[in-house]
Amino acid sequence: MIAEQSTPRRFLPEVQSLRAVAVLLVLAYHLEPRLVPGGFIGVDVFFAISGFLITGHLLREVRRTGSIDLPGFWAARVRRILPAAFAVILAVLVATLVLLPATAWKDVGAAALASAFSVENWRLAASSVDYLAAEEAPTALQHFWSLGVEEQFYLFWPLLVLLAVWLGNRWAKGGLHRPVGRREAAAGLPRTALLLAFGTVVLASLAYSMVLVAAGNPAAYFVTGTRVWELAAGGLLALFLAPPEPGTQPPGTRWFEASRPRTALAWAGFAAIGFAAFGYGAATAFPGVSAALPVAGTLAVILAGETRGALAPQKLLEARPVQWVGDISYSLYLWHWPALTFFLYLAGREPGPAQSLGLLALSLLLAAACHRWIETPARTLAPLAVSKWRALGAGAAAVALVAALALAPGTLADRQVAAQERAAATLLAAPPPGFGAASIASGAPAYLQGMNQIVPVPAEAESDLPDLGDCVQKPQSPSTRECTRGAKDGSLTIALVGDSHATHWYRALEATAKRHGWTLLTYLKNSCPFSATKRVAETDGSISCHRANEDTLERILERGDVDAVVTSHWAGSTFEKGAAEGFANYWGRLEDAGIRVYPIIDTPRPGTRNYARDCVAEHPADLVSCGAPAARAFEAGDTTRAAAALEQRVDVLDFSDQFCADGFCPAVIGNVLLYRDKHHVSDTYMRTLAPVFDARLGALMRADGFG
């Protein structure tokens, strides 16, 4: 094969077919994930292809000129990438202002700004390690994370190639002190230096990826350092396939010149991609070493090159539909995700098979149009094609323009929010009778006395939570922090223990502790119910709960001054066998030590697939559509009562009647928005619930002998 490539083919249909496979896998995963649970590996196929093609281009330029025209290289990337990408960003911004509520504008604007500067992957990495931000709905530009990785690669990779060439040539010519002319440098490739440079990037990046994945760090999926090895691996293949230097003999690859080994290699490559696409899933630790399979498969297909014979895949790869999808793959990747996300918002549900086919057809139509009228003309537009500096200037101007327009949604949202916050501050300064939970007794009306201002303001509801800092540990933390609040030497010491659904009871318990002069301890860790049974999510390393829970139990028991424990957990958590037994185990050990336990039945969920705050902002006059019947508002997996049946010394607290009335659970009660995100109760509502919480907890504690 190497001998054959002394006159390399200008067009590689197998690469174009790999692009088609990659984009169709991504589409299938997003539209029908049950059919292709590992379709996300299509992005890794793209990475390997890009690394191979870009490195091959750079190596050919080095062989021809002895250097790399960096401005020219980056100008070509500007013409190739930015026009279609910016068309999608602008379309999403317009559609957001027209179709989405103001509560979503700021997030979309932030995503557009990050995408314009090719750093969306870092924005997502930052939010993925923030438990609260990780709950946010994906924006229509979230898929730009992979473009960010590639474009960052395009910035530093030619610099690395230049450095390796410079060092390699000087070493080969007698030392770093001896200058090398352009003609000498163009004589050949310093393969050893390039191999060392590329190999170092592959090994370092892969090792970093494996470390982050093993640690359960969700940022591993997005950060450039964990992904760049996939592109660099493509670069290694490009170096291997580079034609031999004049006057040298190619490596002994006569065995590979026959059609059968190449055909076998091509099919093996596609099999590896297929195995990953259908064998991987949500539980696969990724990227890490798992990404090596689709990357290796992609490189195997490229290495096999043109295959001929009865069993060769070449005819299939060269089929016109396959090549056409490969041609439009970039535009198809750009347009499919906005089409899906806007459908999800407008329909309020996942697409069925018919809707998925419709979204596929729409994506193909948009991609074909974008490829025909934006992507292709921009690459060949004469004023930009003839001048690299003009292309770079146009690219910089386009980035500045799109970035400026990306600020518009947030600016408009801020203006609306400012007016709403002034009205909310007036309402909070003098809350009317029946404010929040106090209106439950009168049927839980949404609005009081004709006032239609909602608190917290929906656009700012996500920040309406207890500001406890490090006292609420992240899911990956190996331990749970003990924090002391309330009276230093209180008449009683009460501990609040559990996950984020225990945390959202903090304001109610804090008010109760303050009223009675109690010392309040907190042992709070997101995603970690206080149970001896492991969560299923712990098996993939994304959370770390069991050891932290054991440590929390031991610290509470060792203190000797804890009188009672209040606990709750998200009922949507799934556990290994014995969920109820796990809670009963811990509760029993506390009760054996004379510490009374008061578990709280979990709160209901909002009635919308999207955030309740978005629904409320969009339908302030029709809030019934944002609630849910009580029969389906509560998680079916709540094991609190089952655990209490196993450990009957505990006293269960049930506040379901404070969230629902007459069989219906609304999103707004007495001008107060109940939910700050998908299932966490707002601080404002918990404050209004504090008197009822105090009365019910106090009654149980008095019955248990507390004064």
What does this structure look like?
The protein is mainly alpha-helical and 707 residues long. It is built from 25 helices and ten strands. It has helices at residues 13-31, 42-65, 70-99, 102-116, 120-128, 144-172, 182-185, 191-214, 224-241, 259-279, 292-304, 314-317, 320-327, 329-347, 353-380, 382-385, 388-429, 500-503, 506-516, 546-559, 579-592, 612-618, 630-633, 640-646, 683-703, and strands at residues 472-473, 482-486, 493-498, 519-525, 564-568, 596-599, 628-629, 664-665, 668-669, 672-673. The strands form three sheets. Strands 1, 2, 3, 4, 5 and 6 form a six-stranded mixed sheet that branches. A two-stranded antiparallel sheet has the order 7-8. α21 links the parallel β5 and β6 (596-599). α2 (42-65) packs parallel to α6 and α8 runs antiparallel to α9. The longest helix has 42 residues, at 388-429. Residues 1-6 and 180-186 have low confidence and may be disordered.
